[in-house]
Amino acid sequence: MNLLRFFSRPPQSAPAARDRLQVLLAHERASAGDADLVTKLRDEILRVIAKHVQIDDDKVSVKMDRGEKVSTLEVDIEIPFDAAKKRAEAAKVGAAKVGTGKKAA
Amino acid sequence: MGKVVVITSGKGGVGKTTTSAALGAALAQGGEKVVVVDFDVGLRNLDLVMGAERRVVYDLVNVIQGEAKLAQALIRDKRVETLYLLAASQTRDKDNLTPEGVEKVISALAGAFDWVICDSPAGIERGATLAMRHADIAIVVTNPEVSSVRDSDRIIGLLDSKTMKAENGERMEKHLLLTRYDPSRAERGDMLKVDDVLEILSIPLLGIIPESMDVLKASNVGAPVTLADDASAPARAYFDAARRLKGEPIPVTIPGEKRGFFGKIFGRKAA
Question: Is the pTM higher than 0.90?
């Protein structure tokens, strides 16, 4: 094993540094002046959802994954069971009783 | 009018002050009239690196506030006749630097010197933006290391948007100075290579300063590295960079590239 290690080239770290920098800087240059894009997106998405469902701030996770060609924004929101149930019931009963559903602040 | 050069980097500790002292001295050793200006108000160090720490009476803030005349604040180097230093204030903070005051001092210096070398503080705050504001040429000092390269990219963005040149629609002349380069580590693939950094930052290369004990030795005794030992590897690299800055077409050599057979065997542990 040690002999193998002696003859094989050790793994290089510089290519990783170069690749990580290229991906990161491509994004930073593109979003210059709009550095808070993720924050803005998160706030607006949450506001829209909160209009319809009551959500707990602690049960929201927002993740960003920056890739070379495509980036993903992952928003994971836990919707409480009773909130969803009430909505469903209200929908069954009809438009007249929608007003009793929970209203988010 | 002399040329105003800002030595900048974003990240701290990459060699801005070393470079300001060495390039300033190298230009002056070639007969040019040079002043190096420390913009790091509150954390001045250029005086120490140049060995003039005991001779500072007035500083940049004193001049800006009208408490001293420019001529009183300029400290002449004891080794090179045409080299001067304008120190930063150690006791006041950077809020004492006003855009109008800085502009006045820089234009007065540009009228009297061939080169005005502005040593920028780290960061992207007031001191750094004022140091670059009136520059004709920017030298971006970068280490072959991810955080330094990222910060340099950010600084290049600021040079292209927040300087007088940029605001007047002109192009800021930018150069990359790669410092603390260790050819043997780059060769092994454990340090970003010159071409990697150049490809990422895409600004022209002014020079490569090899990692060397001589830099620390020079600052220990308070001498720019080009004065402390003019035959050392970093001194030679700075002399070449100074000549390129003047427009001489000197090809950039990558340190360690011409290493011979014995160098390959014994050179691994160098520096």
Answer: no
